[in-house]
Amino acid sequence: MIDVLRHTIREMLLQERVFGAQAFVYHGSRTEPGVMIDLLTSNTFKPGLGSGDMYGKGLYTVYDYEGTQTSTGGYGDYVYKLRVNLYGYISFDEDVTVLIYGKNLRPSEQAALTGAPKYVVEVLQKYDEPDGGKFTSQRAGPASKLIRGLVKGLIFTGGNDGRVALAYDPATVTPVAWKKVTDADWTPVNREIVRGSLEKNLHGGYVTSKFEKPEEDDFFLINKVSRLPPHMRVVNRSLNLVNKGLERLPDNLTVEGDLIIDFNPIDSLPAGLTVNGSLSFRNTSIAELPPDLNVRNLTIENSPIQELPSGLSVRDLKLIGSAITSLPDDIRIRDALVIKNTNIAELPQHLANALWSLTLEDVRGITLPRSMNVPGSFVVLNAHNDGDVILPDSLSTGHLKLHGNGITQLPNNLSVDKTMEVRHTSIRSLPSNLHAGGYLDVGNNPQLTELPPGLSVDGRLNVHGTGITSIPADAKIRGEVTGLKR
Q1: Measured between alpha carbons, how far is 270 from 292 in angstroms, rounded to an integer?
Q2: What is the dihedral of CA 281, 349, 357, 398, to 10 degrees?
Q3: Which of 61, 214, 320, 323 sits 20 to 30 Å CA-CA off 300?
Q4: Which of 218, 211, 255, 266 is CA-nearest to residue 233?
Q5: What is the pLDDT of residues 319-352, one digit of tens each?
Q6: Parallel, antiparallel, or unpaired for β 238-240 and 259-260?
Q7: What was the pLDDT predicted at 358?
Q8: CB of 346 within 8 A of CB of 372?
Q9: pTM score of the predicted model
Q10: H or E segment at 43?
Q11: Cβ atoms of 182 and 211 closer than 8 Å
C-alpha cells in the first residue's frame, strides 16, 4: 500500500494527472509565496484576513480561473494553484457533483454518502432541490450558516466570484504552483516541500469545526415539539422554535441564550419565563405578556399584544407592526428603542435620559420627552405628515438622521456630537450656531435656501438639492463642501 501511495504521489507531481475527485483550484492573495506556501504546508494558515467569510471561515478558491476576480488581482497580486481532493465537499453544482461522486447526488445524499452527521443531512434536505436560478450560491448561502465547519467544504457558483470551492480545513489543499497575476507562466513549488501535504490530500481526511462552530451550536433545534418538560433550562444555548407547530411552553422555562418562537400557533407565554438573551415572536397569537417576564431584549412584530406589563425592564425593545399604543410609565429600557409602523402616542418623560439610541419609522403623531439626550443615534424615517414626529427642544444626540417631508423644522438648541443627516424634508432653516462633530448632510431639502450664522462642521458639508448658494462668513467647515447652487 505504501509503495502504491508513493507511486501515485510521484505520478501526480510529475505529470499533474487528476485522479478521481482530485482537482486544481486557484486562490488569490496578497501574501508572498515564501510565506503562503509555508502556511499551507505547515497547517498554520488562519482565515479571516482576506475579503470576507460569508460562507464560513476557510480557504476560498475558484475552480474556473479565467475572468474571475482572482485572475485579475481582485484578492491580491499573487495566485496559487492548489490540488485538492473534493470528495467530502458538498457540491451544489450538478456538473461538478457528477465528477466527484460519479452521479448527480443531491446535497443531502452527498452528506449521507460521506458520513456527515445526521444533523447535516437533515439540514441539507431543505436545500436539495435546484431553484432554477443561475447561481447555486442562493442555496449554498443559507445552508452554510448551519453546516459550516461540519463538512469538508462547499462547491457553488456565485454572482461575484464565479465557480467557488471553499475548504473549511485549508490543510487539505496542496500548493503546486504560483505566479503573479501579470505573469504568463507558473512557478512550480518544490516537490519535497509539498510531499507530506499531498499524502494527506490523497487520504482525504479533514478537521471539522477547525475555525468556527456553525449556528447549530448557537440554536438548540427541536424538530418535533408537542410538550417540553416543566422547569426546563437551556444552558449556554438558544432555543429556536420557529414554525414548529408550538402550542405552549412550560412554566418557569429558562433560556440562557435567545428564545425564538416566530410563526407558531402559541397564544400565551408561561409564568416564570426567563430569557437572558433575546425573546422574539413574530406572527403568533400571543395577546399578552406575563407580569413576571424576565427578558434582556424583546422584539414584538405583527402581534395582537396591545400593552406591555407594568415594570417591564429590557435592554432593547423593538415594536414592529404592533398594536401597542402606549408604554408603561415605569418601563425601563437601558439601550435601544425601535418603533416601526406602530402608533405609540407618546414616550414616558423618564426616557429622556435613559435611551442610548432611538429609531422611529413610519410612525404617526408621537410626542417625545422634553430635552432628550440620546448619546448613540436618533433616527426618524418616513415621516410623511406634519406632526408625525415633533422633535423636542434641546435635543442632544451623537448621530442624527431625519428623512421625510413631514419634518418641517429642527428643534431649538439642537446638539449633534457627530454626524447629522437631514434629507428629503420640508425644513426651511437650520438652528443658529449649529455644530456637527462629523459630516453634515442636508441634501434634497428644496425649501432650504441658506445656512445659519455660526455654523460649525468638523467634516464635510453636502447641500446638493437645496437652494443654498453661499456659506456664511463666520462658518467653520473643515471638510469639503459639495452641492452649492451656482
Answers
A1: 10
A2: 170
A3: 214
A4: 255
A5: 999 999 999 999 999 999 999 999 999 999 999 9
A6: parallel
A7: 96
A8: no
A9: 0.57
A10: none
A11: no
